[in-house]
Amino acid sequence: MKKNNFSGMGRQRGASALTMMIMALFFGGLLTLVVKVGPAYLDDITIQEALESLDGTEGLSRMGPAQVRTMINKRLSVNNVRGFDPKNITVEKEDDLVVINVDYEVRNNLISNLDTVVRFKHKYEMKGK
User: Fold this and answer.
1) Fewer CB within a 10 Å sphere, N or C end of the chain?
2) Residue 2: pLDDT above 90?
3) How does residue 84 score in pLDDT terms, banded at 50, 70 and 90?
4) Residues 39-70: pLDDT tens digits?
5) Which whole-number Å values give the CA distances from 10 to 7, 50, 58, in the listed order?
6) How far apart are CA 70 and CA 67, in angstroms?
7) 3-class secondary-structure state, position 115
8) Which positions ≥6 away from 8 have C-beta within 8 Å?
9) In this predicted model, what pLDDT tens digit does every residue of 93-115 receive, in sequence order?
10) For 111, how many CA atoms within 13 A lie in the half-sphere containing its CB?
11) What pLDDT was estimated at residue 11?
12) 14: how many CB neighbours lie within 10 A of its CB?
C-alpha cells in the first residue's frame, strides 16, 4: 500500500510570516479607524438622546428659539458633549411645533495627511405639553 503525502500532518502548515504581517496591518488599521471615528458616533448618539428628551417638555411650544437653544446647550453640557458647535443647531417654530435641525460634520486626522470626515444630519419635530 502506498502512502499519500497529502494527508495528515504533512499537509498542515501554519500561516506564513507575510500572511501574518498582512493580517496584523489590516486589523491594526481597522482598530485605528474604530478608535478615531467611534467617539464621533458616540457623541452623535448622545446628541440625539438629548434632543429626543426635549419632546414633551413643559412649555416647549411657547418658548422662543433662543430659549430652546439654551435648553439644548445645557443638556449637551450635562451629557459631556465636547467639541460640538451649538451654531450647528437651528430651531424654528411652526405653529405649535418646534422644528430642530442638526447638521454638522466631524473631522479627525487619521494618519499623516489622511483625514476622516463623518457627517450627521437630523431633524426633529416636537410638541411640548
Assistant:
1) N
2) no
3) confident
4) 999 999 999 998 888 887 888 888 888 888 88
5) 7, 61, 75
6) 5
7) strand
8) none
9) 887 788 999 999 999 998 889 99
10) 6
11) 63
12) 7
Strands 97-111 and 89-94: antiparallel
Cβ-based neighbours of 87, under 8 Å, separated by 6 or more: none
- DSSP category for residue 6: T
Among all chains, which residue has been given the C-alpha cell 467639541?
83
Residue 56 has what pLDDT? 77
For cell 460634520, name the residue.
105
Q: Which residues contact 50 (CB under 8 A, 6 or more apart)?
A: 72, 75, 76, 79, 81
Nearest to residue 86, comparing CAs of 109, 98, 108, 68?
68
pTM, 2 dp: 0.76
